[in-house]
């Protein structure tokens, strides 16, 4: 199959994802972490709160709290071993970034009146780039990026038409630093960056993020009475990987499970690893990343999470 046909197949796949996501929003939030109450600093129980009535998350397995597991079959041990002590539908040993950002929110099914005041989060790109990188050359993947971004914009516009007004958009992380790629697609010396990541793969991710940021800016101007927060997950994750030892992690390009191809056996201490299985992050890494997002220094506009909530809802 030539690369043009691969692009066509990938495009159809994105369209199906958008269609399924829109359908789920129109019914109820099996895909999302949807909860009642407040979003507050997960590390300070006494912090001020903000009343988002619900969070609807659209994303890949980096932020999936159980949709794939519910629809296609449950994940198995040792997934969930650190926090839940059993599989929880999450592709990690424990909690995800979104769990920490919404850790003080109580469970409740959303009501129709919640939709307009809810927070809509997006964490996308890694799966699309992964599919492209493993099936075509990097420059060919870059030509496909506008298609992915346009599908994303179409999904946002559909949500807007249904009443969504507040959007929290994560860009994609440094895919060239995932142990899966470093191990299975080892870079040449000239294609290796200073910390051992695949330089050209990260360049693809940065191109994706540039296009995504431009599109978010366009949507902010195009859609009336909306608030967008663009979050630079790439920089946060790259900072963690490049300074792993400083933050208590070892072997930043290694992984907790599956190093020998066996994904059914957990490592001795997941807290020491950034990567859980070569593709997804550990709870320890997710907690570190979520903590760095709290002060807004990696967001545009640069607002702390609590201040952003107050600004978005006018509370």
What do these coordinates show?
- 41% of the residues lie in helices and 9% in strands.
- The protein is an alpha/beta fold and 315 residues long.
- Helix 5 packs parallel to helix 7 (199-222).
- Mean pLDDT is 84; it is low at 10-47.
The largest β sheet comes out as: 5 strands, mixed
Shape: globular
> What portion of the residues fall into strands of 2 or more residues?
5-15%
Structural class: alpha/beta
Instruction: Write the H/E string, N to C.
Output: HEEHHEEHHEHHEHHEH
Q: Report strand order across the widest sheet.
A: 2-4-5-6-7
Radius of gyration: 19 Å
Unreliable sequence segments: 10-47
Mean pLDDT: 84
Q: Which range best describes the helical content: under 10%, 10-25%, 25-40%, 40-55%, 55-70% or over 70%?
A: 40-55%
Ends apart, CA distance between termini: 54 Å
- What is the β-strand count? 7
Please tally the helical runs, counting DSSP H or I stretches of 4 or more residues. 10
What's this, in brief?
By secondary structure, this protein is α/β, with parallel strands linked by helices. It has helices at 3-27, 67-72, 97-101, 126-133, 138-161, 179-184, 199-222, 233-242, 283-293, 305-313, and strands at 35-37, 55-59, 105-107, 119-123, 166-170, 227-231, 299-300.
């Amino acid at each position: 199959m030539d690369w043009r046909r691969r692009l066509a197949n990938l495009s159809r796949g994105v369209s199906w994802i958008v269609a399924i996501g829109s359908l789920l929003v129109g019914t109820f939030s099996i895909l999302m972490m949807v909860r009642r109450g407040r979003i507050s600093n997960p590390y300070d129980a006494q912090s001020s709160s903000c009343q988002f009535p619900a969070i609807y998350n659209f994303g890949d397995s980096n932020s999936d709290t159980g949709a794939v597991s519910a629809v296609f079959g449950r994940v198995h041990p040792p997934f969930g071993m650190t926090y839940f002590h059993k599989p929880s539908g999450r592709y990690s040993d424990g909690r995800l970034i979104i769990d920490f950002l919404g850790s003080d929110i109580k469970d409740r099914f959303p009501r129709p009146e919640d939709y307009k005041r809810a927070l809509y989060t997006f964490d996308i790109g890694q799966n699309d780039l992964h599919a492209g990188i493993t099936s075509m050359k990097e420059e060919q993947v870059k030509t496909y990026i506008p298609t992915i971004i346009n599908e994303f914009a179409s999904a946002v516009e559909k949500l807007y038409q249904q009443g969504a007004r507040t959007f929290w958009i994560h860009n994609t992380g440094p895919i060239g630093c995932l142990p899966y790629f470093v191990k299975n697609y080892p870079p040449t010396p000239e294609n290796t960056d200073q910390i051992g990541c695949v330089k050209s793969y990260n360049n693809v991710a940065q191109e994706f993020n540039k296009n995504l940021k431009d599109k978010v800016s366009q949507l902010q101007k195009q859609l009336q009475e909306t608030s967008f927060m663009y979050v630079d997950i790439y920089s946060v994750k790259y900072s963690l990987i490049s300074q792993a030892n400083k933050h208590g992690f070892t072997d930043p390009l290694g992984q907790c499970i599956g190093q020998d191809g066996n994904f059914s056996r957990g490592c001795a201490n997941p807290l020491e690893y950034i990567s859980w299985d070569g593709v997804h992050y550990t709870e320890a890494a997710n907690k570190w990343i979520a903590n760095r997002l709290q002060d807004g220094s990696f967001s545009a506009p640069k607002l702390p999470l609590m201040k952003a909530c107050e600004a978005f809802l006018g509370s």
